[in-house]
Give the backbone structure.
Amino acid sequence: MTAKPARAVTSNQPEVHDDLLQTVRRYQQHAFLKPIADHSKVAFDQAQAQLERWQGPLVLDSCCGVGESTAVLAGRYPEALVIGVDKSAHRLGRNMQHKQLANGREYLLLRADLNDFWRLAAAAQWQPQAHYLLYPNPYPKQKHLVRRWHGSPVFPSFIALGGKVTVRSNWELYIREFALALSAYEKTAQVAALAPQEQPITPFERKYQAAGQSLWELTASLS
């Protein structure tokens, strides 16, 4: 059975959300007090113990899905401990087919809610060398701004982690909003179209390329 081509993002929001900066600034001033889920705390403790043993650079791959990108990044950053985090145990369980992309390097995959994990990592003063956020759910409906990472109450913890951030999306507006949200923290982002010949490192990236969609990348230094 032939897989259906990936559909482009459709939204009832034609421009950057009018409430974006107001929302970002509100969460700058108010702590996110949602209780930490038990499974997220267990995952974080596992990562913290491994990081303490590692005593070297850290690379985070948030929303890693099946962990293909995590394996690729492990090969690209041989000097670092690369940790992929996703909320879906089912997706993480499909990682075996991608392990060879790590070129023999070990990496860690964890099931956790990033609303919890980022807060725990920021509280522990993690400072990753690089932090990747590749093709997160764009939540394109206008009313769902606070479900986008840059519009969510956990965004201050994302900022606190620092490092060189790379965000990719097939929705240009998501990337533009992310850049504007960073500006509220006096961080400057570079935004560019991803080259069509870019080697895909996630299944979504591969599907979007095959469908001829334009892909976008944001990079910024949060250190």
